[in-house]
Amino acid sequence: MLVPNPLLPGFHPDPCICRVGEDYYLATSTFEWWPGVRLFHSRDLANWQPIGYALTRRSQLDLRGTPDSGGVWAPAITHADGRFWLCYSEVKSLTGPYKDVCNHLVTAPSIEGPWSEPVRLNQSGFDPSLFHAPDGRKWWLNQRWEVRPDGNCFAGIVLQEYDPGGQCLVGEPRLIFRGSSLGCTEGPHLYFRDGYHYLVTAEGGTGWEHAVTVARARDIAGPYEVSPYHPLLTANARPECRLQKAGHGSLVEAPDGRWFLAHLCSRPVGVQRRCILGRETALQAVVWPEGEWPRLASGDSVPADTVELPGVEAVGEAASDAAVALPTGGLGVEWNTLREPPDGSWLDLDSRPGWVRMRGRFSLQSTFENSLIAVRLTALRCTVGVTLDFAPTDFQQTAGLVFYYNSRAYHALLLGWLPGVGRVLRVLSADAMEVREVVPLGAVRPVDGPLRLEASLADGQLQFGWSRAEPGREVSTVGPVLDATVLSDDRVIETGSWGFTGCFVGLCAQDATAAGPWAAFTNFRRTETSG
């Protein structure tokens, strides 16, 4: 069966794939979103089920104050010695010439956990991985970040032995690969086959020039020779390709000897070619004859829109979280929070059956204490709605529906209050840290009682609306059509910042008084129509 790419639509970047028997597992980056490192399982490479997260405890991950697009980068998952091994970077700052990074390792007897407390191993760069050599030794790899003004900040891939008994790195780190002419060498994964060590790296940066590079050496320390079919994968200079920014890949061998490459990609929309859904996960078939170099099955380096997966009869929608319900008793795998786990001080899932209650805290600009739960946006066309019961008594209290990229980029439909007026609907739009009131304050005065808040997204255009929370009520639009493409890596980079995530849609509450009423939400619906 021809299976369409991407396999994991929406914000699912930096995929790392491995196989254990008949089961495939895949991990993706989560950056500032909680919990950390999203995990998937599949038996056929086509249908992927989200099975939870590896970093689910405060003792494992502290993201409070983490900058936008900091946090958990590039997890690398492997299985050896009856355990799962997961390496990842935790990025504490990324502005200016420096990258303040802690590289960690956690392990678990099962993919469901329990995952161990992190072991911090080094901080010389990012994107760590662990190679289990045939002789039983273990080797740690990561990108080395250079801060000298006359140096290449992407200084290459370093290798160091890992001692599992002491849970530490031993010996001196060795620079084994400086990269190809594409530059920006990162994301290393090492494989041993037919007497060669194959080093797979990401290169070219995470934008339009992104690529996957393969090099090999007899000795693990090199020297490494770049493939004559370089690069293995890229959409660079191919604007006609549907899947752009293709890179950061990892390889997996199926039980029947076929090989596949999991990699990230993005799908631009509009004349400005911005990627609202962020960096997604796709799969390519690879041919790898004995003693030869791996190549895409197409014979080209261009990412294909489909991948041939024999034996697959149907592809479901579970991987895209198409059916999302409000959580009860605890947040499910579809829902995420920002920078910290939910707790009863601001999120109540139980006291009002069928409703989620939320106590407002800091603003959407904050990197601390955001009262927000959200799901990934996974299609370019969708409608979203939720019923809100909220009675603010102060102008500093708001709650509602938000399309959120980061603290500098979002569109929100919020129910608030004005003295002498009462309840009002507000539309806040943030772009490059500039926040606008799109609708004149007091212009939209909804009726008392619960309201239905709605939004419609179509290929980069976003329209908010509202109605009474009663069946059959006509929806009234609120404000103009908004440019949803500002909710993208591309727009954030245009404004001189960094962005590596994707758009979420969620429920939020803000309260500068710290004493206002709780907002209650029910009947959340997200209906995707295409994309």
Automatic annotation (TrEMBL):
It holds the Pfam family Glyco_hydro_43. Residues 330-525 form the Beta-xylosidase C-terminal Concanavalin A-like domain. Keywords: Glycosidase, Hydrolase. Coiled coil: none annotated. InterPro entries: ConA-like_dom_sf, GH43_C2, Glyco_hydro_43, Glyco_hydro_beta-prop_sf, Glycosyl_Hydrlase_43. One of its GO terms (molecular function) is hydrolase activity. Belongs to the glycosyl hydrolase 43 family. This is Glycoside hydrolase family 43 protein.
